[in-house]
Amino acid sequence: METRRALLVDAFTDEPLAGNVAGVVPDAAGLSDDRMGRIAAELGASETAFLFEAGDGADERVRYFTPSTEVDLCGHATIASYAALYDAGEVDAGDRTLRTNVGDLSIAVDDDGTVWMRQNPPTVEPVDETELDADRLGDALGIDPAALRDVGADLPVAVASTGLPWLVVPVNFLQRLGEAEPDAAAVEAISNAHDAAGIYAFTFDTLDAASTLHGRAFAPAVGVAEDPVTGTASGAVGAYLRAVDAFDGALPEELRFEQGHFLDRPGEVRVRVDGDDVRVGGRAVVSTEGELCLPDERDDDGIIEA
Fold this sequence. Notes:
By secondary structure, the protein is of the alpha+beta class.
């Protein structure tokens, strides 16, 4: 029976069983879409990265699958992949080029194993309150709408993207954010209506004084009820903070986003924004490594007819 090396890697942390777990298949050559989807479902991580040789100007090619669908970009699985490759001695510190479904991305690996991912040029589009008001958002997220209105005048709801769109929703206090009990169907409907992967709700009220904000990411539209620590969303939110002038023109050189604490998987994402250059960075640690046995390819569509 064919086997493939498969890893579970905890990203945006240097502690096992924290941060955001990603599946990583370091050699996915020859795997069909069906097999990749089934492997991702078996590993059970929110996303699994499948790595291929690229050539033609790129060092690696990657495809990302959730347990239910393929997604174009995943920050934490990218950080996890390169941290694992570096830890295994399969790549050296320095610059790499990664080919994704949304184009080629620049990756940098520091000597200490920190992985930096340059994201696509950002877009930030505020959402008119007549299209999506605080009452509807609050009901969907299970947050008192007053906690959204309290900051809405200065920080608008917006769709931000650095490769994967997220609906960015500011919340006044950490307690309110922590009380969120999302209605998955309502969050999915709102996400779909705004062509977003999910909703990233955040507050400047943080647990760690060194953190810029505390975030939570809800993405049932792509099969993830809540993502513990989210790279693509963090890059998008970094661009959002610059676009809405959240720091009165003085965006810090490096932003630190804490996330995952309400899922008992704390992690930290480092974000650097310089004009249209947005980079997301973090550490990662391999928690599980083994050989995955693969079944034969399916000859049909898997549908059983009576």
